[in-house]
Amino acid sequence: MRGTTSQPSDAASRAAATLYGALPAPATRPSPIPRDPAAAAASSGASARTIATEPTTAGDQTGSIGPVSDLSQADRDYAESLGRQNERTGTVDGLRRIPSTGADTVPGFMLGTLTLRPTIGERVVHESVDYGSSKTSRVYSETTVSGTLQSDWSRHQLTVDGAASFQKNLSGTGTEEPRANIDARLDLDLVNDVTATLGAGYSYSEESRTDPNAIAGATAQSGIHEFRSSVGLRKDLGLLRGTTTFEVTRRLYGDATSASGAPISVDDRDTLGAELTARVGYALSPALIPFLEASVGREKYDQRIDNTGAERSSITYGVRAGAEFDMGEKLRGELAAGYVLRDIDDSSLEDLSGLTLDGSLAWSPRRGTDLSAGLTTRLESATAAGQSGSVVYGFNTTLTQQIHSSVVARLGATAGLRDYDQASGRADQKSYGVSTGLVWSINRYLDLEADASYTRTREPGVTDEKTARVALGLKLRR
Which contiguous run of DSSP H or E holds residue 15? Predict the structure, then answer.
């Protein structure tokens, strides 16, 4: 082996041994001055002859290794192999790379094995609303506090996401609309490739006056508190993927406010619901997993018979068929179609049923361009006498384009259809909206945002609503 034999006899061998770490680099020390003048003269002559016959080039010295010119070609090749092989590829035009300023580059705060990444945003919004013959306009500030808490564990994972928005009118008239939402998810890796998921969440919102259950003429609609909890199990059996989820939802409705300022109680709408969902998928490939899904749920009203004299508790059955697909960063998502039926306890009310369309899609045709789309279907209970409710379909899509390393443009669109039961005698309600925005990441901690949006809700025989907003704001994250 190199460097394990006796001391090398020549400079090349010593340089090679030094290269592989067997010998220390040769040190250059001044020769001791002999006391005998004759010996000094002889030593001086020998040194002169040595320097003349063995010249040393300063450029050949590399750290503590001997002269490179004395190494064999094999030693030089081995020395080069010790260096970095996967060098970063430079830009096409040779310009200096600009550091990324995305939200994923923010370090956050370390809380033991958890990382907290908080964000605070402040916007000034001008809003104009046309509701039938009345028109209102206001300027308000909107403060949004959000954050993500994520674990850094070797096995399990905890993720908590939350956001809350508060509005304050600066001028004009209009209803302030606070919102809040928080979701926690704990993924547990159990024995025999069994994965468990525990979830909990809370959300608050105010009912829109275009909602069919809104109180006509109220200056402030009811606030909706929703509490959620869930538990799920997943097991892979060869090519089969089995998932079971049980979710409990508690929904509470606050008082609305009449034009005279008096509270209007709507607590007869408070409900407790539970749903069990089972899914079986077959992995045709890692990129495509078709599946079948079935669900059954029970929704029970706190007040068995509501203020209209109807018993609105119900059992809901659903079945879906679809596929999950994951083709990397270019294309991934899930699409499914099915059928849902809600059997209402009161025999005088018509059961709700309809086709369901659900899914999500994320497509990136090229770097810097991202398109996302979503489909949702849900059942909505009614509160008016003789009405059962509706099947609500929603669609949304967002296109983002990175036009600069720190500037991203966004274009969005939404559409909705509320399909009422035939016994209600109401025409279907349609809504649509468009939005656009621009985000400039000044640095990885601060963003400047500008956006504009327009939405419209139409229903024959009911007052239409048109809303336009223009906003400018800052977002600070850590």
Answer: helix 11-19
Burial 251-289 (b: 16+ CB within 10 A, else e): bbbbbbbeeeeeeeebebbebbbebebebebebeeeeeb
Instruction: Look at residues 368, 359, 372 and name the one whose alpha carbon lies nearest to residue 331.
Output: 372
At residue 13's C-alpha, the angle toward residues 11 and 14, to 5°, is 65
Tokens encoding 320 = 């879906």
Does residue 237 share a domain with residue 351?
yes
Question: Residue 88: inside a domain, yes or no?
Answer: no
CA 171 to chain centre: 35
Angle at the Cα of 216 from the Cα atoms of 215 and 218, rounded to 5 degrees: 70
Range of the domain at 398: 111-477
Q: Which one is predicted more confidently, 397 or 60? A: 397
| CA dist., res. 22 & res. 4, Å (int) | 7
What are residue 456's DSSP bridge partners?
432, 466
Domain end point (choices 81, 103, 135): 81
If pLDDT is split at 50, 70 and 90, which confidence band does 354 have?
very high
Q: Going by DSSP bridges, is the β-strand pair 446-459/429-441 parallel, antiparallel, or unpaired? A: antiparallel
